[in-house]
Amino acid sequence: MDLFDAVDQRRSVKHYDPAHKLSDTEVQTLLAAAIKSPTSFNIQHWRFVNVTDAALRGEIKAAAWNQAQVTDASLLLVLTADVKAWEKQPERYWRDAAPEAQKVLVPMIGQFYGGRDQVQRDEAMRSVGMAAQTLMLAAKAMGYDSSPMIGFDAEKVAQLINLPADHVIGMMLAIGKPVKAANPRGGQLKLEDVVIKDRFAA
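Above: the chain sequence. Below: its structure as tokens.
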């Protein structure tokens, strides 16, 4: 599928065929695409929790206002991020770069993120968002639909998946074979409503 077609056709779909299964190869293809997503300083904050246990999915569904896609979709990912990834062996993020680049970039990571808790969290969440978009577009290109989700008790889901204390949940993402199309777009703003030339009006 053409990229622009995937962008145009990607919608948040809520109803999935519970009998449909993604193959292991399809899941690996999606996740391999996700880890090509950009991250600041190549830190790769994302940690993708692939929830395959049916009982666990049921518990997560209960923590997500009983939304059907949690259990019916072929794939349920909890997209989390390691907020402290920047300080965990940062040299590994540039291990394949030229030594000259390593000497410059690796120290810069600590200089930029050290002592800046809000920046660390913001960056982790940005990384999750970019990975989520990659997953959604890749899924659409493969003929599947997706549902990005924030409608859940994040603290409960964190407990259920044993989320480490230095991680955050960005969103959940359900992917699968739709049985009902998304509703028409609710009201797309015009470009002139959202694009500002140079600067906001004083």
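The chain is about 40% helix and 15% strand.
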